[in-house]
Design a protein that fits this description.
alpha/beta; 7-stranded parallel sheet; two-stranded parallel sheet; NAD(P)-bd_dom_sf
Length: 299
């Protein structure tokens, strides 16, 4: 089975590609914008014709699109998260119409949730940020493309290799810098929002299941832990793991984003039915793996 992983050199893409390479008989090619990628692909700028040529060369049985932007201005987000999937679908229709497409979407597409109520795939999508809006546009491009495709709406991924642009990655860097200094002070924003944190290794396993599942799949499947926890719990969990002895100062002013989306939790029962998938790792598992992996990178 030939599998092309777009965004294969990024945070999620690396884990997905590694997981897929363990499949018996799988030939996995990672594509991305960096020199380390097997194929040079930039969904933000490549025209459909060029991408179609890449697909002809790769001849994939399945494509997993892990490419995406989480930060930057609205134009950057739109180019990667909205234009990218649309161009990919156009190229697939021309060059590999029978390949299965597994596209990684985001729970941010739903927008504000209701406290205590996990959101299902049938809930209306009402994103309140440019990121959520552009990810939703990408989802619409995939679900309306008349391809063998499924969108995995991923919660907040946590685990080994978390980038500095994410809260877990940034916090690890701060805790490394603070060390065991009892006088250290970490000044953080509002940590009261509830989020559905999912281990990145569980995300990779869900992508594998979506690639290999027989028959047509639902258009959209939620991939999360199925539980909402305060962001504060993640922060304190990492601090305990680090043996942090200093003081944390949490802003009481809040943030615009947390105020707009104070609760986020996904109902993952549809993924269990369609893929036989359930999260296998707890938040503590994810934090332990994140801290250990980061320690191995420190000289």
């Amino acid at each position: 089975m030939r599998i092309l992983v777009l965004g294969g050199t990024g945070y999620l893409g690396r884990h997905v590609a590694e997981r897929l390479r363990a499949l018996p008989g799988a030939h996995v090619v990672a594509a991305g914008r960096t020199a380390s990628a097997g194929f040079g692909v930039d969904l933000a700028t490549d025209p459909p014709e060029r991408l179609a040529k890449t697909l002809v060369t790769a001849a994939p049985d399945a494509v997993v699109n892990c490419a995406g932007a989480t930060g930057g201005d609205a134009v950057t987000l739109a180019e990667v998260n909205a234009r990218g999937p649309a161009v990919l679908c156009a190229a697939l229709r021309e060059a590999a119409p029978t390949a299965r497409l597994v596209h990684l979407g985001s729970a941010a597409e739903y927008g504000p949730g209701t406290a205590g109520v996990p959101v299902t795939e049938s809930a209306p999508a009402c994103p309140v940020t440019p990121y959520g809006a552009t990810k939703l546009a990408g989802t619409v491009a995939v679900t309306s493309a008349a391809l063998d495709a499924v969108v995995l709406r991923v919660g907040n991924p946590v685990g080994p290799g978390a980038p500095l642009a994410s809260l877990p990655g940034r916090l690890v860097a701060l805790l490394r810098s603070a060390g065991q200094d009892p006088e250290a002070v970490l000044r953080l924003g509002d940590l009261s929002a509830h989020r559905d944190f999912v281990d990145v290794r569980d995300v990779a396993r869900a992508a594998e299941s979506a690639v290999t599942a027989p028959g047509p799949l639902p258009a959209v499947l939620n991939i999360g832990s199925g539980t909402a926890v305060p962001v504060r719990e993640l922060v304190h969990g990492l601090a305990r793991r680090a043996g942090f002895r200093g003081r944390m100062e949490e802003s009481t002013a809040g943030s615009a984003r947390s105020a707009q989306v104070s609760w986020q939790c996904s109902d993952v029962s549809a993924a269990a039915r369609a893929l036989g998938w359930r999260p296998a790792h707890s938040l503590d598992d994810a934090l332990a793996a994140l801290w250990t992996a980061d320690a191995e990178r420190v000289p």
